[in-house]
Specification:
The protein has about 90 residues and is mostly helical. The chain has a single domain, classed as Methane Monooxygenase Hydroxylase, Chain G, domain 1. The chain is built from 3 helices and no strands. Helix 1 packs antiparallel against helix 2 and helix 2 runs antiparallel to helix 3. The longest helix has about 35 residues.
Length: about 90
């Protein structure tokens, strides 16, 4: 346990941020799985919608600092390439 008041506050805020970040990362994994399922099924319209939603979620996570922007860009590029192969 921290002895200093500001350190105690940092422990609380870090715990809240950790919970929020884990929630967002879990959501990203769910959307990635939906994209992969849509591409595997071969349904182009469903895959296009899933990729669009996934890209939006990645951008929001990068903006909030949950993931780095380069990571978001890389994942978007890879899903877009997979979608292009489907066509």
């Amino acid at each position: 346990m921290p002895n200093i008041k500001s350190a105690a506050k940092r422990v609380k805020t870090a715990a809240k941020a950790n919970l929020r970040n884990r929630s967002i990362k879990s959501e990203l994994l769910t959307f990635r799985r939906k994209v992969e399922e849509a591409i595997a099924a071969g349904d182009k319209s469903m895959a296009t919608a899933a990729v669009s939603t996934y890209a939006s979620k990645l951008d929001k996570a990068a903006k909030r600092g949950v993931i780095k922007s380069n990571t978001a860009d890389r994942k978007k590029a890879r899903t877009a390439a997979a979608l292009a192969k489907l066509a």
